[in-house]
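Data deposition worksheet. Section B asks for the primary sequence of the deposited chain exactly as it was used as input, without tags or linkers unless they were present during the calculation. Section C holds the resulting structure in token form. Section D is free text for depositor observations; keep each observation to a single sentence. Incomplete worksheets are returned to the depositor.
Section A, Depositor: J.P.
Section B:
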Amino acid sequence: MYSIFGPSRILPLVIVLSLTINSHAHADTFSDVYEAFQHAYEQNDIAASVTLSQKAWQLAGKQFGSTSENTLKLHYSYANMLVLAQQYDNAAREYRSVIEQYKAVYGDTHIDTLLTYTGILKNLNTLSYEIVHKSEVKTLKPALAKYLLRNIEEVQDASEQEHAYLYSQVAKEVIQITYMPVQLSELIRFLNTAVGKAEKQWGPNNQQTLETRYFLARGLEAKGHRTDAIDNYLSVATGFDNNNSFSHPYSLASHARLVTLYEEGGESEQATYHCQAIGQMTPWDTNQDPQPLYRVNPDYPRSQARRNQEGSVQLAFRVDTQGLVKNIKVVSTQGNESFADAAIKALSQWRYAPQFKDGKPIDSTELKVILDFTLGI
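Section C:
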């Protein structure tokens, strides 16, 4: 859930206390509305939260002044509530207004201004691709990311620890942007700097550092720097494993990406270790089919494509101790037999995390999968 308040270094409890201390003149009006807003939010009453957050922000402006910290934070809260209420265009406009207010009060590169940019981007990153591209959020997200990347070096009023923290948080949010607003080479330079600051502040094996290095690995992979990406994913996976943080999502993600990168490079033996590592970390759920770590899409039989013929193949198979697909059998075929040949060829290249029992990998029971062959319209 979103934080009610802006992404500042001041905790919400301090804000509540300051509001109580400084609200003599209009205590009945402001305090009642503010407390009602908090209650509505805690009760997940989104409609009431929108109305009350807007009213609390407006009353705060009258009581504390339009440029007070309390007023800015309550404006940010109102924008957050609009997102929760699915009023995305209105939320985007209020976020833009919040940004301009922070820049006017604190300056373009003050730590609180850049943290606000980062907090807004974090909130917007929770929205689906479909939502983003049907609203004003579509232009706001890359604008936020670009501003952060171009201005973060000039951050003001930040300690070294705050500086490192800001870099790591910006890295986490910017790497999720679908359409990067800067060249990948610029992004990678930024990510390298972020890792360097994290290592200096927290050491190479700290969780914050490892998470930041994971973002660097993703950037390197996107740029096509396969060897460097592998090196960084290995550092992340090894670091978390050495810290006994086997279930950390970035540990699992790093092992998974290494499976793909090694398979794409024809290094199946190297991929096996990471298949087994994931299998050991994540017990099989007997109530659902396991998902492949690496999959190859089947080639569409040319003869059937020329005839505009579609098909479907159900295959049975087992996953061995190395995560390889074995004992493939055709259960049923709809359409020409060439669909079955293509499906078997593709499935034989898939990789899974093997099942573990008593700490050792074992062959799986028989699994089934359906591969559909459909032509685009």
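Section D:
The beta strands are 311-319, 325-334, 355-357, 360-362, 367-373.
Residues 183-282 form a domain with the Serine Threonine Protein Phosphatase 5, Tetratricopeptide repeat fold (CATH 1.25.40.10).
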